[in-house]
Amino acid sequence: MNAVFDPKAPKKACNVSINEDLLGQARELGINLSQTLETSLTDKIREAKTKAWVEENKDAMLAMHQWVEENGLLSDHFRMF
């Protein structure tokens, strides 16, 4: 799968606000907040980029589906079933 970000880029400190109870529970469980945030952001960014790509290419995909409906698949003559 294509990387959403450059994993070799340097880390940068930032401030975030988080629910105190969540923070306490995460610390008790030994959850790495930085890694959890990076993983979640990666998922959200991938999802948003996928959604944007689908929207940007919607017309082309619809046109291709229409063409296949009218003409069939290019490989139809190779089918043995």
SSE blueprint and pairings:
Elements: H1 20-28, H2 33-56, H3 58-71
Concise account of the structure shown:
Helices cover 58% and strands 0% of the residues. It is mainly alpha-helical and 81 residues long. The radius of gyration is 22 Å and the shape is elongated.
Provide tags for this entry.
81 residues, mainly alpha, 58% helix, elongated, single chain
What are the secondary-structure elements, in order, as H or E?
HHH
Distance between the termini: 33 Å
Number of strands: 0
The whole-angstrom Rg is 22 Å
Mean pLDDT across all amino acids = 92
The low-confidence parts are none
User: How many separate domains make up the residues?
Assistant: 1
Share of helix, binned: 55-70%
Shape category:
elongated
- Which structural class do you get from the secondary structure elements? mainly alpha
Separate helix tally: 3
Largest sheet: none
Portion in strands? under 5%
What is the chains' assembly state? single chain
Task: Please provide a written account of the structure.
With 81 residues, this protein is an all-alpha fold. The protein has one domain. The chain contains 3 helices and no strands. The protein is elongated. The model has no long low-confidence stretch (mean pLDDT 92).
